[in-house]
């Protein structure tokens, strides 16, 4: 009987299946009620695994040297891990929070087995401050990007208020109407030429950053070799999405602009407390952009229509403003600068160029070359940022309501990484930072301070506008 082979891995997915980039995606689901092991097996067998055949596949190299997915017999029990925390901690939620994040940090560095489908589910049977029990999915990034994996989970969720109604998602802000249509012919040609020149320039800078152009060494960027194997600290902080929308309305931006501006301000405060910061230091962030270019999901059906599994994203490098004298800079200026930077980058084709370049490198030099370029791009930048939009309503999996869920990424060659996810009107920010180098508690404190200052300035602006 012929082997059942699925299509080859994309260039990005192949690069994630090399020793150079052992990236893993970690998704945490926080439940109101506990599951036992048999219930977890049932959920995986009936709800999640049938959605994509990749969950029953290993990565196989065929006779032509092409890596593709190969169907195998799946034993679900082999993929379920139930850890044991230190004795006596089951009633101490604060203590369990500490053990929980330490456990996440530990598994973020572990390698997944090569002889079985590359995913695991860790059942944390201890109550934490936000859950009675938690399920932690750890998956090889080759399975798909955050969009693919989260859409798999979303399709298994049901609304708590009415399971028959569709789950809905926040609608991303539409871009402002372009003035391009109002230009005369000469202006259109000039604008087109300018965009082409800027695209080429930006693409060259991105390529140089991936080869040898590095950010400056700072208190958020160490030069420790093979950072992806260095112990991490994982922490979480939550903000109100309505408040963030108030900020975005004041600056005329998007929620994404506010997130990047908040992170920029946080980095500035953190660096200010630990070192003398000059405005000419090079500090940049690597932002993962979804190449499906969706402006936002209306519901799960819309999200699933594309049926685009795998890794389909581009690399966007943005400079973070430091402002040498930040005491005289409005907190909102960090968001305004983030907005300007994102507008400039999104008007270029450099994101698409990065995807095209990876395909060219894969065809000429193989997947290791793609992995090498992506690895060095991450290593040469100061931090990473990725975000996913989540449901607006409270949802349940197998009739068990979720208090929250979020994701992070393991195996990144950076000292600091931010992942952001919305759910039920809240925005959850997860920091994963180099243990012993980044003061994670101070970093979270700086983020709360930055957020408070931004809100205060927003309220002043609103009051001035209404008076």
Description:
The chain has 467 residues and is α+β, with helices and mostly antiparallel strands. The protein is built from twelve helices and 16 strands. The longest helix has 27 residues, at 185-211. Helices cover 39% and strands 21% of the residues. α7 (255-274) packs across α9 (331-346) and α7 (255-274) crosses α12 (440-466). The strands form three sheets. A seven-stranded mixed sheet has the order 5-6-7-2-14-13-8. The termini are far apart. The chain is globular. Residues 174-183 and 293-297 have low confidence and may be disordered. A hairpin with a 2-residue loop joins β13 (395-397) and β14 (400-410).
Question: What's this model, at a glance?
Answer:
With 467 residues, this protein is α+β, with helices and mostly antiparallel strands. Helix 6 crosses helix 7. About 3% of the residues have low confidence.
Q: How large is the count of helical segments?
A: 12
Q: Encode the helix/strand succession as letters.
A: EHEHEEEHEEHEHEHHEHEHHHEEEEEH
Low-confidence stretches: 174-183, 293-297
What number is the mean pLDDT?
81
Based on Cα principal axes, name the global outline.
globular
Number of strands: 16
Biggest β-sheet, characterized? 7 strands, mixed
Instruction: Report the portion of residues in β strands.
Output: 15-25%
Q: Name the helicity range.
A: 25-40%
- The N- and C-terminal alpha carbons lie at a distance of 78 Å
Whole-angstrom Rg: 22 Å
Specify the structural class. alpha+beta
Output the strand order for the largest sheet: 5-6-7-2-14-13-8
Catalytic activity: a long chain fatty alcohol + a fatty acyl-CoA = a long-chain alcohol wax ester + CoA; an acyl-CoA + a 1,2-diacyl-sn-glycerol = a triacyl-sn-glycerol + CoA
GO molecular function: diacylglycerol O-acyltransferase activity; long-chain-alcohol O-fatty-acyltransferase activity
Pfam family, one: WS_DGAT_cat
GO cellular component, one term: plasma membrane
